[in-house]
Every structure is written in structure tokens, then in C-alpha cells.
Design a protein that fits this description.
A two-stranded antiparallel sheet has the order 1-2. About 70% of the residues lie in helices and about 5% in strands. It is mainly alpha-helical. It is flat. The protein starts with a helix and ends in a 17-residue tail after the last strand. The chain folds into two domains: about 1-90; about 90-120. The chain has helices spanning about 1-60, 65-90, and strands spanning about 95, 105. Zinc ion binds near residues 111 and 114.
Length: about 120
């Protein structure tokens, strides 16, 4: 059954290559996953802020304390996402425009979206 042996071997090798590729990608894929997770958190937070506001409006209560707390969480999440996106860009040999958030190649001097002069590192 040499044919099947060869086939099995070929399939095993293909799987090996895929796993190795995924490992190599590990850093970037992990970052993308983290960004996605944080963005989902942010969406949930925005939704709950909306609901909170509506309920406070409906009940005629003051909601500002809860909102301040929720907004602080939003700020934290936005900062975390920005940091992750900068890491991901670095891993992909790109950078993020600090002004508008556009993804730029590392050599870019002026952002093609907003025109901000970029800091050149290295
Ligand atoms: Zn820009």
C-alpha cells in the first residue's frame, strides 16, 4: 500500500507546514485576535452606555457618576487597542499615523491621509 503511505506522509507534511506557518504568524495572529477581542469589549461598553443613558432618562435619574466610570473604561480600552494596533503595525513592518490612525509603511514621511509628518525611527 505504498500509495496510501505516500499520501499519508504527504498529508502529514502538509499539516506540519501549516502548523509551522501558524507558529511563525503567532505574534501577529495573536495581536489581531487581541485587537478583535478588545474592540468587541468596546462595542459592548458603548451599547451598555447607551442603555444606561436611556434607562436614566426614563427614570429621570442622574446618571453622571456611572457615565464617568464607563467613560474611563472606554478611554482604557481605546488606549489598549491603540497600543495593540501599534504593535501589530510594527510586526507587519508598518506604522500607525499618530494623528489619524492610518496604517502607513515604515518609510512614509508624510501621512497620505492627513499629511502629518511622521517620526522616523531607526
Ligand atoms: Zn495621518
Amino acid at each position: 500500500m505504498a500509495f496510501f503511505d505516500d499520501l499519508t506522509k504527504a498529508l502529514t507534511e502538509a499539516v506540519d507546514t501549516t502548523v509551522k506557518g501558524a507558529e511563525k504568524l503567532g505574534g501577529q495572529a495573536k495581536l489581531k485576535y487581541q485587537i478583535m477581542t478588545q474592540k468587541k469589549e468596546l462595542e459592548k461598553l458603548y451599547a451598555s452606555i447607551g442603555k444606561m443613558n436611556y434607562e436614566a432618562f426614563k427614570a429621570g435619574t442622574d446618571n453622571s457618576e456611572n457615565l464617568t466610570e464607563a467613560y474611563a473604561k472606554v478611554e482604557n480600552l481605546l488606549a489598549a487597542i491603540a497600543a495593540l494596533e501599534a504593535d501589530a503595525a510594527k510586526a507587519a513592518n508598518c506604522k500607525i499615523c499618530p494623528e489619524c490612525g492610518e496604517k502607513l509603511s515604515k518609510e512614509t514621511i508624510f501621512c497620505h491621509k492627513c499629511g502629518t509628518k511622521q517620526e522616523i525611527d531607526e
